[in-house]
Amino acid sequence: MLSAKRDSYSQLIVIFLATILGCIVTNVWMKQSYDVSVFDLSTYALSGSKASESLKYSSVLIKRIEQMAVIILAIKVFQIDRVINFLTFLFGFVLGFLLSVQSYYLGIKGVFVVIFTVIPQFLFYYAALLCVKKYIRSSDNKKHKIQFAICYVMFFLFGILFECNFSEKIFGCFYQYMVTV
After folding, report:
1. How many angstroms separate the CA atoms of 59 and 53, rounded?
2. Interatomic CA distance for residues 161 and 181, integer angstroms
3. Best exposed site among 138, 141, 144, 174 by fewest CB in 10 Å?
4. Backbone dihedral angles phi then psi of residue 139, each to the nearest 5 degrees
5. Does residue 112 contact residue 174 with C-beta atoms inside 8 Å?
């Protein structure tokens, strides 16, 4: 029990420190006059791409399956805890990067955009990754393996659904208050 609590605290500390590092790196990058406008989420909303819904879902599904395949291969090569720790650090770093860029372009509103559009899909994918970890660590009990596999598929599909559908709609709700005349 104590080890699990300590492990969860260490994960939170890793996310916190990686977020701070991501913010620092992004601010140094912007001070060097590098262009980070490609990471501005408001340009994504203004792009007005007319791709069909099925094409959008299938392209995101293919990308996420490829990424999960690479993660599962990394788990087979390296220890699962090291892969999870690396991905936790990467999650925090990307979160810090996005928070800095969005606050630079949108002010405090950008922080809320990241909180409501990016973090939930990260959490769904992270939960799917933890299901993979439980699946690998579970004993040879078929019932547990089936439960973790169903849990993984559910979180994975919810992450894709949120990324393709809800994230865009939530951003649209925020965008009407972000436009300055």
Report:
1. 10
2. 33
3. 141
4. -70, -170
5. yes
Collapsing DSSP states into helix, strand and coil, what is residue 78? coil
Encoding tokens for residue 163? 């990324």
Count Cβ atoms below 10 Å from residue 95 Cβ, excluding itself.
21
> Distance of CA 47 to CAs 56, 110, 172, Å?
14, 18, 12
- Sign of the C-alpha dihedral, residues 79, 94, 13, 117? negative
- 180: three-class secondary structure by DSSP: coil
Confidence (pTM): 0.72
For 37, which DSSP code?
G
Q: Quick one: DSSP state of residue 140?
A: S
The contacts of residue 29 (CB under 8 Å, 6+ apart) are 36
